[in-house]
Amino acid sequence: MFTGIIESIGTIRDMQPIGGDMRLTIAIGKLDMRDVALGDSIAVNGVCLTAIAFDSSSFSADVSRETLSLTSLGELSRGSKVNLEKALTLQTRLGGHLVSGHVDGLGEIISRHDDARSVRFSIRAPDHLAKYISAKGSITVDGTSLTVNKVDGSTFELNIVPHTLEETIIADYRSGTQVNLEVDVIARYLERLLLGDEAAHSSTSGSNITEAFLAEHGFMK
Q1: Which helix (H) or strand (E) element contains residue 23?
Q2: Is residue 155 a part of any domain in this protein?
């Protein structure tokens, strides 16, 4: 688990194809590796990866074909900047929100514009994730815990303050940039809980929760 508070901006040093997978070597920037052991988890742009080798300036991790196809990691190249965060401990301040490091889908930057000293971004999420995104709720974008300002269908807006722009790769986002999205885990568990006994039955059409379902169970008037 992670908090979504980025600890360092890293740089892709090497990408080595191995048997159809990819081994990444990442320069860690200011990330403190003194408490890292082999097998520990490090989030790279919000994707939980396992450190298989490391030294004081870099670490390596294997990335499966599935992860490459479902996240933006497959679009990286040597020199790409990435957000880095070590897995949380019981002593870690939970300054963001609970983040699993399991990407739910790819979003796309639709627009950006200055708003005083901050920058506002509009991001389009995949349609199947729209129901999990709510105004003033939490969402993880490339591993960064952020608060949703506004939602319109599958599009949501973020207001990024100067400190976050300086400490993450968000400052480099432009229209068309693809970003890893992870919705709030509480929303996912709540959806499953609302299904009650129906959760035990398989469904080929995705979630069984509809407006009719919510009305029948007293959640809508």
Answers
A1: strand 21-27
A2: no
Euclidean distance between CA atoms 167 and 154, whole angstroms: 27
Q: What is the mean pLDDT of residues 54-82?
A: 96
Three-state DSSP at 189 gives helix
Closest CA to 78 of 24, 143, 22: 24
In a domain, 44, yes or no: yes
Domain count, the chain: 2
Contact partners, residue 102, CB within 8 Å, separation at least 6: 48, 182
Last residue of a domain, one of 86, 108, 132: 86
DSSP characters for 111-148? EEEEETTEEEEEEEPPGGGGGG--TT-EEEETTEEEEE
Q: Does the predicted model carry a pTM greater than 0.85?
A: yes
Phi, psi of 2 (to 5 degrees): -135, 175
Task: Report the DSSP pairing between strands 138-141 and 178-183.
Answer: antiparallel
- As a whole number of Å, the CA-based R_g of the chain is 18
Helix, strand, coil tally for the chain in percent (to 5) = 20, 40, 40
The residue out of 70, 86, 102 marking a domain boundary is 86
Q: What is the pLDDT confidence band of residue 189, given thresholds at 50, 70 and 90?
A: confident
Report the CATH number at residue 51: 2.40.30.20
For position 194, what pLDDT does the model report?
82
Parent domain of 211: 187-216
Q: What is the mean pLDDT of the chain?
A: 91
